[in-house]
Amino acid sequence: MLRISDRLNRIKPSPSSMAGQRARELRAAGRDIIGLTSGEPDFDTPDHIKEAATRALTEGKTKYTDVAGTPELREAVVEKFRRDNNLEYKASEIIVGTGGKQVIFNAFLSTVQEGDEVIVPTPYWVSYPDIVLLAGGVPVFVDCPPEKGFKLQPEDLERAITPRTRWLVLNSPNNPSGATYSWDEMKALTDVLLRHPHVWMMTDDIYEHVLYDQRKFVTPAQVEPALKERTLTINGVSKSYAMTGWRIGYGAGPLELIKPMVKLQSQSTSNPSSVAQAGALEALRGPQGFIAERTAEFQMRRDAVVARLNKIPGIQCHLPEGAFYVFPSCRDILGLTTRDGKCIQTSDDFVLHLLDTEGLAVLQGSAYGVPPFFRISFATSMQMLEEGCDRLARACAGLT
Ligand code: PLP
């Protein structure tokens, strides 16, 4: 029998990928499924980006590139950080990977030793704990309760730091909660890290441009320049430019960190796709106006969905500040019984009930470390969202 490594046995498949797959399978089997699990914009990649990639193909840009990305793309990333975040990096301090996910993977695999701790504010993006575990580290979860806007509190961060802490991983706007940090809130967190020079900051800024109500985006190295020499700033084109399938993300940090990450990438995937890099170059250097238009559309959907959800008895939904998810609580539903006599004890039971009775696919809060919640993606049409809310209301009304 094939023996699976202990390393792999420590992790589970990505719950969001699995949920998407389950919805596709049920649909293929003839069920009428409304899928609200998607972690990607429903918009298409803009034409000017597609054209740049097509041009790259016809010009024969189909060979290996530098492992860390083409010099042009790394230069465009340098310009992006200067333009949007007031951060100065050299091209040698940039790594381009196959999605932001690979950049996170490279960083943890390069720096986390057996037993090292990584602070993961909860709710968290599903992959952080598993990548830490794969690297041999220990995820240390710090609760960010809804009463505190799902935001990491400086005193809770301070309490979680031990001599074994290697990283804090911060994600703003947050998937799944939509929480973001103002300048002052971010400064309070960076002040804590200034007192603990052995702790590095990983900031996952992938939803930077999906930000509502005229909020201003801030990133830790910009707020506290003294922390820049131990900060890895991660971003990518997946969410802002509707390019999830292209698989291009990037990270910026000190050379002492970027170099081992490039070494690891040189022995795993090598460079990310040359054609996708050409598309990403156009994304970063080309017109940016469509991003605000799309964010305005997301904001309209957010407002409609939150208003609708809060009218459903048993459901409470806060207003997300960014990203394209709502993360309502189903706490008041727990303990109720379905028509066929099953008790809904957990949000996992609730999510299954939605799928069974109404063909509505959403994600259970346990995947994000917060059991009595569930995640709905509003990166889909208003029509689908309305139908999804109708089904949710019916499924709740059927419980006693
Ligand atoms: N970080 C967060 C918070 C995400 O939600 C995602 C994708 O869902 C990623 C990173 C990975 O993005 P990419 O497509 O760049 O790998």
What does this structure look like?
- The chain has 400 residues and is α/β, with parallel strands linked by helices.
- The protein folds into two domains: 147 residues, Aspartate Aminotransferase, domain 1; 225 residues, Type I PLP-dependent aspartate aminotransferase-like (Major domain) (Aspartate Aminotransferase, domain 2, 3-Layer(aba) Sandwich), CATH 3.40.640.
- The strands form three sheets. The chain has a seven-stranded mixed beta sheet with strand order 2-8-7-6-5-3-4, sandwiched between helices. It has a three-stranded antiparallel beta sheet with strand order 9-12-11. A two-stranded parallel ribbon has the order 1-10.
- The longest helix is centred in the last third of the chain and has 21 residues.
- The model has no long low-confidence stretch (mean pLDDT 95).
- Pyridoxal-5'-phosphate binds next to helix 5.
- The site of pyridoxal-5'-phosphate (PLP) has 13 residues, from helix 5.
Task: List ligands, each type once.
Answer: pyridoxal-5'-phosphate
The domain count comes to 2
Low-pLDDT parts are none
Number of strands: 12
Biggest β-sheet strands, sense, barrel: 7 strands, mixed
Task: Give the name of the CATH architecture of the largest domain.
Answer: 3-Layer(aba) Sandwich
**If you consult CATH, what is the topology of the largest domain?**
Aspartate Aminotransferase, domain 2
What Rg, in angstroms, do the CA atoms define?
A: 21 Å
Number of helices: 14
Instruction: Give the structural class.
Output: alpha/beta
User: What is the 3D form?
Assistant: globular
**Spatial ordering of strands, largest sheet:** 2-8-7-6-5-3-4
Distance between the termini: 48 Å
Proportion in helices = 40-55%
Portion of residues in beta strands equals 5-15%
Task: Say which CATH homologous superfamily of the largest domain is assigned.
Answer: Type I PLP-dependent aspartate aminotransferase-like (Major domain)
Please write the string of helix (H) and strand (E) elements.
HHEHHEHEHEHEHEHEEHHHEHEEEH
Question: Quick check: average pLDDT?
Answer: 95
CATH class of the largest domain: Alpha Beta
